[in-house]
Amino acid sequence: GQTGKLMYVMHNSEYPLSCFALFENGPCLIADANFDILMVKLKGFFQNAKANKIESRGTRYQYCDFLVKVGTVTMGPSARGISVEVEYCPCVIANDCWNLLMEFMQSFMGNHTPGIPSVFGTKHDSIYSPADTMVQYMELFNKIRKQQQVPVAGIR
């Protein structure tokens, strides 16, 4: 009788022993890699939506203190977009280095440089964590999913 909330189970190659569970408009749970097995055992309480699998795979580059990951976002067999993740390794407080990150991204992304991520608004002066990265990936994946649902207008 209750409407279900979505929970997304995510993995990140930078943290191979961890599994991230993001709840719709809620917290991010970080568990060990066996979390997937637990979810299979709880299949009576959760409905799996395998058709919605989306992933980003690509290459990791290091330039001085910057880590740049460029990936192709795929849904099923087809490419749907490109992801660019940039990290300034010496800084753990994201708001302290945002201007530096922007300047660095503008050097190779030009006008396509994104604005400040929404996760920064809630973090203020706290330490940036892997869960924050996963939240940003989830936001990107949800944007890409929504683009798929928009009907395509006919061409005349």
Automatic annotation (TrEMBL):
Entry superkingdom: Eukaryota
Biological processes per GO annotation: regulation of transcription by RNA polymerase II
Protein's UniProt keywords contain Transcription regulation: yes
Family annotation (InterPro entries): Mediator_Med20
Keywords per UniProt: Activator, Nucleus, Transcription, Transcription regulation
Pfam family, one: Med20
Keyword field contains Nucleus: yes
GO function term, MF aspect, one: transcription coactivator activity
Annotated GO CC locations: mediator complex
Subcellular location: Nucleus
Classification via PANTHER family: MEDIATOR OF RNA POLYMERASE II TRANSCRIPTION SUBUNIT 20 (PTHR12465:SF0), UBIQUITIN SPECIFIC PROTEASE HOMOLOG 49 (PTHR12465)
Similarity remark: Belongs to the Mediator complex subunit 20 family.
Assembly, per entry: Component of the Mediator complex.
Function: Component of the Mediator complex, a coactivator involved in the regulated transcription of nearly all RNA polymerase II-dependent genes. Mediator functions as a bridge to convey information from gene-specific regulatory proteins to the basal RNA polymerase II transcription machinery. Mediator is recruited to promoters by direct interactions with regulatory proteins and serves as a scaffold for the assembly of a functional preinitiation complex with RNA polymerase II and the general transcription factors.
Protein name: Mediator of RNA polymerase II transcription subunit 20
Lineage of producing organism: Eukaryota, Metazoa, Chordata, Craniata, Vertebrata
